[in-house]
Amino acid sequence: MSGGQIQVDLREGIATLTVCHPEKRNAMTLAMWQQLAAALRELEGAGVRVLALTGAGTRAFVSGADISEFDQARDGAAAVARYNQAVADAQQLLAEFAAPTVALIQGACMGGGIGLALACDLRYASASARFRMPAARLGLGYSYADMRRLVDVVGAASAFDLFYTARNLDAEQAERRGLVHERYADDDFARQTQARVRGIAANAPLSLRAAKAAILATMNPPAPARLDAIDALVADCFASEDYAEGRRAFAEKREPVFLGR
């Protein structure tokens, strides 16, 4: 466990990535950013219906970057560029993952942890979760991509407040600002979020992927080639066995069984 790791579990179409560095409240090391990117690349073609990102234990989702390694991992311009690229790669791969992604947040979610949560499509928090952007207390800068995701989710006014004050938000405040979609009682968090994730996994995978591609395209004006790709995904839905199954299930008043084809 020394140095932390990203644990990967894939079963029944549900991929669970666990940030496991409990002695540092799941702080991300350079190696962990690289592991996360590698895991996302491997999972992209593995038939994933939904991907859940969580932290080990209940004390923290991700408490940010492991600052204790900065003297070595960010020593000099080349090392800084390498580190920043590793973070950017992991977050971009998560943001662009073809299947739905969900952040399951318990405990501390700070700095880079918020960045990872924002790179997910949905964010569910436990009642005791807390959120903070401490960059201004550490002298850190955030990239355009990081800021864009934050502003897209909470708006410019809240982004200014989070960065300027570096204050803590509790789960209720985070929900009011749109930073999390839903919050659940601590003792019911696992049951509620598992039900949510399983519910997403039970839906038609081609429909979800097409919807995600289109929603992401509305957030960033796409090139014509990207629009063509989205149209192709939509066409695949209507030509799929799942579309026929959905219509049959509706007519027969039963739950559909989707196969992702």
Automatic annotation (TrEMBL):
Pfam families listed in its UniProt record: ECH_1
GO biological process, one term: fatty acid beta-oxidation
This protein's record includes keyword Magnesium: no
Molecular functions (GO terms): isomerase activity; lyase activity
Protein keywords: Isomerase, Lyase
NCBIfam families (UniProt xref): PRK06127.1
Full protein name: Enoyl-CoA hydratase/isomerase family protein 12
